[in-house]
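Hello,

Our lab assistant flagged a job as stuck in the queue for most of the afternoon. It eventually completed. Since we weren't sure the result was trustworthy after the delay, we are filing this so someone can double-check. Below is the sequence as submitted and the structure that was eventually returned. Let us know if re-running is recommended.
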Amino acid sequence: MDEARNLSYMFYGFAAAFVILAIYVASLAMRERKLRTEIDRVRRMVEDPAKKQ
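-- returned structure --
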């Protein structure tokens, strides 16, 4: 009985860690997407005046 309870605690601990890790990875992916968009926007701002000259 005691071992089964310990295994359930371990399962819940690993499940919580997995959920936290998944949320962290998703937030990193969203940040990367925003940075890529911003870099593309800045790149276009820098390149456009060069084309006009």
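-- support follow-up --
The delay was a queue issue, not a problem with the job. The result is valid. The CA atoms of residues 28 and 34 lie 10 Å apart. The radius of gyration is 23 Å.
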